[in-house]
Amino acid sequence: MGSPRGDQSPRPRESAKRGLTRGRVMNRFPEVMAHSTGAPLARDPGRVLLALKSPRERADVEQFLHGMEMFLEDEPESSHIPGERVNHTKSRYWAQARRPIDDERLQKIEQAGTAIGLDWVGPVYRMAGQEGRRGLMTPLPNVGVIKLRDGRDPDPARPGVPAALTRADGPQPALKEVPEKSRYLNGYRYFQIANVREVNAYQLRERVRQSPDGALVDFQFETMPLLTPTSIAPNDALFPQQWDMTRIEAGGPGTTGWDITTGVATVVVCVLDEGCDLNHPDLRFSAPGINLGTMLPDGAPTGNHGTACAGIVAATYDNGTGVTGVAGNARILPVAFDAWTDVEVAAGINYATANGADVISMSFGWNAWSPAIIDPAIQNAFNSDVVMCVATHNYNGPITYPATNPLVIAVGASDEIDNRKTPLSPDGENWGSNFGPAISVVSPGVHIPTTDIQGASGYNTTPGTGGDYDLVFNGTSSATPHVAGLAALIRSTYPGLSNVQVRAHIERTAQKVGAVAYADTVGRPNGSWNHEMGYGRINVYRALDEADVMIKDAPSDNGLEPYTGGNFWDFSDVVVRITDDNVFNPSDPLQSKNVERGQANYIYVRVTNNGSREARNVTVSTRITPFVGLQFVYPQDWTLTDATHVAPAALAATFGTVAAGASVIARFRIEAAQTKTLYGWEANNGWHGCLMAVVNADNDYAFATAPLTGDPITARRNNLAQRNLSVIDVLASAPATFHFIAGNRWNAEPRMTLQVDRSRLPAGMPLTLSLDEPGTVFPAVDFAGQVEQGEPRDEASCDSALVFLEETRVKTRFGCCTGILTLGKGSRFECNKQHKLRNVTVQGGDVVIRNGQRYVDITQPLVRVTMEKAAGIVYPLALRTTIPASAGAGQQYMIGVEQQNSQGMAVGGAGMVYVVR
C-alpha cells in the first residue's frame, strides 16, 4: 500500500477544532498537558502509537491499518537529516489516520485490533518549540514512574503497590512493579498498568495529584519518541580509507597515539545504543549486555546503529581484518534500546555504571525526554567516575538533550577539511552538526568506515562478508564514539585519572582547527573555546602525550586554570636567595625575598609537571623589572630585554625531561651590578624589583595553543608566574614608604581600581595612599616622557613647544662648568605632558589634599580606590606608614595592594613586608 510521506497531519490545534465541530472528542486522553520540563504538549489527533501484546511483522500491521483508513508512519522519501528514522519496534508501531481520531474511532481500532493482538493505543503529542516530527512523542499510557516519600508504606492489601495509587474512587488500576527497571531508576519505581483501557497513566497521575495523602514526591511518564533520537544516516557508497584515524592522529604516518597505546582489555566502553552484532569477527565484548525492553541479556541488535558505533570505539586492532577502532584492544559492553524511552536511557546509564563501564558512548539526543528521569542517572554515573560522551545531533541548530547536561562531553562533528560539519561542507551532504554553549569538542563525522551487522542485514546490504562493514557512516553519531574511544585510551594509559581529568586531557589537547576564532571564555577552564567547535577537534596523540609544566602561583595552586585561590603575586614558586644554597621556601618571605647589595644574588624557580606524561625539552626564562609593578602583560613583560626588563644569567634553565608529577628547580644569577640597578636602596624608600618566570615544554600542548592575552594573564596560564613581594628591614618609630607603579604600557583601559589591604596591620597604625608621587625612586622608568597610546609625536602635540628656526648658540652652565650649547635648525624644546589620575572615588575613605598633593587615608581593612587613567601610561604611587614605637625586633608588618580592571578582576598586585630589626 502506498502511504503519504513526512509530517502531513494537520496541526494539533486545528485538528482539535475540527473534532469539536463534529461533536466528538477523545475524552480518554487530555487534549493539552505539560511536559516534565514545563513545555506545553498538544495532542495530535491524526496520530497514534499502537502497542501489540507480542511482536508482529510490519506487513501484518500495514494490512490491519489499511482496513482502518490508516497507514504506518514512515521515513520521508528524502531527508537531509542524518538519523531521520521512525521509532517502530517489533511490537510498537506509529500510525497516521486520514481523519482525526475521536473516542468512537478509538473504540473501533481497539475492537478490530484483537485480530493482531493489540494491547493498547497511545495518543501522540507535539512538544511546543520542536520543529517537524522531532517534537512528536507518546507519554506511555500504561506506565507510571513514581517516587515515594521516605517512610511511606505500601498498601498492605496489595504488596509492592503504593496506597496512594489505589485510594481514589472509580476503577482501580491493575498495577505491577517491574523491579528490574526500578533498580536502575535512581529512586523512582516503575509500574505497569494492565487495565490501561479502564485507567491510564494520565488519569492515574491526576488521581495522585488530588490525593490528600501526599505520599508521592513525583509522578513521571515514560516517554517514547516518534523518531529515533540517533544521530546518523549511512550511505551506500564506499570510502576505502580510515581518514578519520589519521586525521585525529590515532594512527597513520609518524608517531601517533597508537604508538603509546591501543587500549587494554580491562577498560570497558558501554555503547548505549541499539545493541551490537555479538558475533562480529571484528568486535570483542567485556560481558553480555542487556536489552532495555525486557531487561534481559544479551545486548543483541535491535537495529544497525549500535554495531556501527561500536566499531569506531573499539574494532579490534591489528587482527588482519576489517577496520580498527580508536581503542582497538578495549572491550565493548553492549546495551540495546527497545523503544528509546527516557526510562530506557536512565536504566541504560545506570546499568552501564553498575556493570563496570569506564566510558559510555551515547550517539543520540532528544529534547522531549524527561530530565527528571535521566539527570539522576547521569549524576550517578558521574559520581561513579564514568566518562560520558554524548552526540550534539545533526539539525544544524541548538544542541539536544542530554548533551546539554554539563556532566557529559558534548561531541559535535567535523568535516573532511576540519570545519564544523554544515550543509556547505565539501562532502555534499545536506546536514549540519548541532552547536552552542554546551559543546565540548568535535571529531570526524562524515564517511567513517566502521563495522556493520554481518551480511546483508545491516546498513551495507552486500551479501556475505562484503556486508560486514559500512564505510560511510555519518553524523554526530559517528563523531561521538571517536571521543569515547579516546577516553578509553586515556583510561588505559593513565588508570588513576578521574573522569574530570580524562575530560580535561581531551579538551586541553584538542586542535584549534576550522575557520573559526577560538577565545578564552568564562566557564571554559581547559583552553580557548568556540561555540561551533568547542575546544577544537580531538587529537589522540596529544591527549596521550600531554605534559603540563607549571609554576605554582601559590602553595595551594593545583594547576587548574585560571588560578582562583587568591593573590598570585606574593607567594609563587619564584624566590630570591642571597647565596646559592638550594633553600626553597616560597611561603616564608624572610627566606624567599631577601636581597643583599654589593654581591650576586640568586633566583630559584620551581617547575612542576602536572601532566600525565613525561615533559620533554623543558625551558625556563626569567625577567626582573627595576620597579614594583601591579600589572604585567604577556608577551612583552616576559620576553623583552630592555632598560625595564632585565634578563638574569641562567645557571640551570633547561631540562631534557621532567617526569610526570616531578619538580625541578631552575637557577639564575643576578650579578652585583644588576642588583644595584634592580633594587632600591634609598633610606626609607627600599623596594625589590618584580620577578617574572615562564616555562615551556615540547609536549605542553595546552600552553602552546593558548591565546596568551587577557586578564589576569598569570592566573590564567599556569606556565607564567610573577613574584612582587618585597621584604625591607626597618626600625621602630621609623617612617616607611612602599613605592609601586600602577597601570601598564600595554594597558589601554580608561579606568582602574586599586584595592589596598591593611588587614595585617594594627588598628592604630597609620596608612596613607599617595596619588601624586614624582616617581624618582624608580630612575629606570621615564615617567616624564610617556606618550599615551595613539597620541601623535609632532609639532602639534604640545602647544608650548619651543622650536629653533635657525641654528642657535646658547651660553649656559651645566654642573660645575660654563660652556656654549649649539642647537641646530629645527631643534625643539617640548613640555612634558603631566599624566595624573583623575575622577578618583574611594569606597571606605576620602581623597584629602595636603600641601597640594592628593592622599587617601586607609583606615578600613580593605579600601577600594577607583580612578580614570590614560591608555598606555604608568603611574607612580606610594603607601606611607610609620612603624609603631612599640615594635620589637623581628616583628613583621605586611601591606598589600591589588590592581583591578574595569570588570573588577584582579590583574596583579604587590606586597610589602616590613621587618623590624
Overall description:
- Keywords: Hydrolase, Protease, Serine protease.
- Residues 8-17 have a biased composition (Basic and acidic residues).
- This is Peptidase S8/S53 domain-containing protein.
- Residues 266-536 form the Peptidase S8/S53 domain.
- With 917 residues, the protein is an alpha+beta fold.
- It has six domains: 12-134, Alpha-Beta Plaits, CATH 3.30.70; 143-220, no CATH class; 243-545, Rossmann fold (3-Layer(aba) Sandwich), CATH 3.40.50; 549-727, Immunoglobulins (Immunoglobulin-like); 729-787 and 834-916, Immunoglobulin-like; 799-829, no CATH class.
- The protein is built from 17 helices and 44 strands.
- Helix 7 links the parallel strand 13 (290-291) and strand 14 (331-336).
- Helix 8 (342-354) packs parallel to helix 9 (371-383).
